[in-house]
Design goal:
Layout (H helix, E strand, L loop, with lengths): L21 H9 L5 H17 L3 E3 L10 E4 L6 H7 L7 E5 L6 H9 L3 E3 L6 H12 L4 E3 L16 H10 L3 E7 L9 E4 L6 H4 L5 H19 L10
Parallel strand pairs: 1-7, 2-5, 2-6, 3-4, 3-5
Antiparallel strand pairs: 6-7
């Protein structure tokens, strides 16, 4: 009898993300001690960035002393470092795609820097709960609201989930535009915007209309910081 299984290719099992359970994640994300790895990585990157990108940060004073939501445009892997350079007095907890946690080395790094894994393809309630835990504990949350990297100065559509987190946590929102082409020995400028007006929205209900309004204000802040270059061609 012919063996129908002999020539079938083996099915490669997809690696599952290496993510601690919810109780352990809460302990990691709300920890108040300084992470030696975060400080070391940021310190080394800062030296390199100043030497090869001549990086200049404008508006650092706009970041409030309290915990806040810091949003940036996303074009390269180094973007979290540039946002972290704007707030050296704290350790930002960054949201990142869940797929990265499938790599053991990255999972270890993410644990050291207290990263928040996000399932970008679905409404990730676990990520929302973890992010709210970060903000309610008084820490700052780093978000790239486009949800993915873009190859141009123009930004992609902003996801409304970022605005929802800001409204529910009642934390200030800061837009940061990273301006430059990541070319060696070419200046990179990081512009930090002022806290976005939210008082009128916080006085009402957190609903789709409020989230859409705040998202539009975030987009306008990015446009101001970039001189309009962050806007899609039709809106510029």
């Amino acid at each position: 009898m012919e063996n129908n299984h002999e020539n079938k290719p083996a099915v490669k099992q997809e690696k599952k993300p290496i993510i601690p359970d919810s109780a352990e994640m809460e302990v990691i994300l709300t920890s108040t001690g300084r992470s030696w790895f975060y400080q070391l990585a940021l310190g080394l990157f800062t030296i390199v960035a100043k030497l090869v990108f001549f990086v200049r940060i404008e508006g650092r004073e706009n970041i409030p002393a309290e915990g806040c939501v810091i949003m940036g445009n996303h074009r390269a892997w180094a973007d979290p470092f540039f946002l972290a350079m704007c707030a050296r007095d704290r350790e930002i907890r960054f949201m990142g795609k869940k797929e990265l946690w499938r790599n053991r080395a990255f999972a270890w790094i993410a644990r050291q820097v207290r990263g928040v894994p996000v399932d970008r393809g679905n409404v990730d309630m676990a990520a929302i709960r973890m992010s709210m835990t970060v903000l309610k504990a008084g820490h700052s949350l780093g978000i790239f609201p486009e949800g993915t990297r873009m190859k141009t100065e123009a930004m992609g559509p902003l996801q409304s989930g970022a605005a929802m987190l800001a409204l529910r946590s009642r934390r200030p929102v800061i837009a940061v535009y990273i301006d430059g082409n990541y070319r060696l020995f070419r200046r990179m400028t990081v512009r930090v915007g002022k806290p976005i007006e939210m008082d009128d929205l916080l006085a009402g209900r957190v609903n789709k209309e409020a989230c859409d309004t705040l998202t539009a204000r975030i987009e306008a802040s990015f446009a101001q910081l970039s001189g309009g270059r962050s806007l899609p061609a039709g809106k510029a």
